[in-house]
Every structure is written in C-alpha cells, then in structure tokens.
Amino acid sequence: MFEPFNGSRHCIAHALVVSGMIAFWVACSPQVLAQAQPTQETNTRQSSTAVQGLQQADVNEEQARAWGLTPQEFSRYQALMQGPRGVYSPGLDPLTALGIEARSAEERRRYAELQVQAERQRVDKELAYQRAYDEAHARLFPGEKVIQLSSPSAGSNTGKPALLGSDRLAIFVKDNCPPCIARVQDLQNQGQAFDLYFVGSQGEDEHIRRWAILAGVEPKNVRSRQITLNHDQGRWMGLGLGGDLPAVVREVNGQWQRQ
Fold this sequence. Notes:
By secondary structure, the chain is of the alpha/beta class. The chain is about 50% helix and about 15% strand. The chain has 9 helices and 8 strands.
C-alpha cells in the first residue's frame, strides 16, 4: 500500500510496503523540477568553460615554450596584439612584438637575444632542407636548375641599372620579411606577371633562388618569364620612393609609383 510521509508543499515523500519491505521515493512539484533544470545547465556550462580554459592554458604554455618565453610573457604578447601593435603590425611574431614594446632596456636585450637564437635555428633548418631539395632536384632532373635568374637588364653595366619594363609590376623584397613572401604569393595566385628585385642579395644568385623556393615561387612561372628574379643592384634606392618593403611599383606616365 502507499503511505504518504510528511513533506513540504513542493515535494512529498512516499513509501510503498511490499512483503514487509519499504521502498521510498520523493515526488516534487513541476515548479521545483523547472527550477532545478537551469541549475544543471548552468553547472554544465561552467564545467565546459573550465575545461576549455585549462585546454587554452596548456596551448599557451606550449606556444610560450616554443618561443623560449614564460606563459606570462606569451599572455602579454597576446594582449599587445589585441591593441594598437596588432593593427600596426598584424601577424608579428612574439619576440619582435615584445621587443618593440619592451618596458626596459633589459627586456629589450633579452628579446633581441632570444630572436637571434630563434633566427639562427630557423635558418639552419631552412638551409638543411634547401640542401636536401637541391640534391633531390639534381638527382631527378640532372643538368636543370631549379629556378633560373633573369639575365642582367640593359643599363646594369653603367652603374645605374634600370627596371625591366614599364608594362609590368615590379616588387622589391628582402630577407627575413614575412610580408614580402605573402605579397609575392598573393601576386602569383592572382596570375600577375611581375619582376622581383631582391634587396641585399650581395650579387649571390643562390641567395635569391633559395628565397624564391622558400617563398613558393613556381619554377614554371620563372621559366615562362611570367615572373623574373633579379638582383636589386641599387634600383630601390634609385627610385627614391621610400617606405618599408615589400614595395609593389608600376610606371605611370613615366614615373614609378607604389601600388
């Protein structure tokens, strides 16, 4: 039989006597059940948020370690990139951003040293891969250069080299310049014909070839002269346009202008 026990006006305890055994259960009003549901959902959301926070902390710690930074330093880098520095220099790496925004000479020196070490490791890895790439190309395509540089243009022996042509874009790039690589890839993806001038190559053809390969320049585009690769040889300074690299320029009414 069923026997109600004393309970509140919202929940009532019941007992069922069966063969000398007593089973208990509590019946609550719909109002109480409705109030309990949001609490469970809130707890679930809070637990999920806590887990996501821990996962993000682990990711940040791993990224900080990759750059030789503490989690606190990496968090400051993230905060900096959410402000004006991120607008002025989107995609800036942590060491450069922290070095530029250093709060003391000691901090600036620390980040500079970390960046020198990081750059050395990067270059060593890239050179090792470049050697492997060159060896593979020589083995698979003997006697054929990966990327052939353009012949010197007219005027290059006069000390005042000229740009190749007025009907094409020209882009000036340099080493250690991620925006230069991004701009070249963008022009290539658009199917643009352009002449690339490498500033600071010191006349070394392999320097430009290596940069072009790392930048993803397609050898077929170089062979067809859709893209030409050239030493700057003072052309950029001769234009007198100023500003940071990369610089995309075109001749308009006899004057070279940034695009």
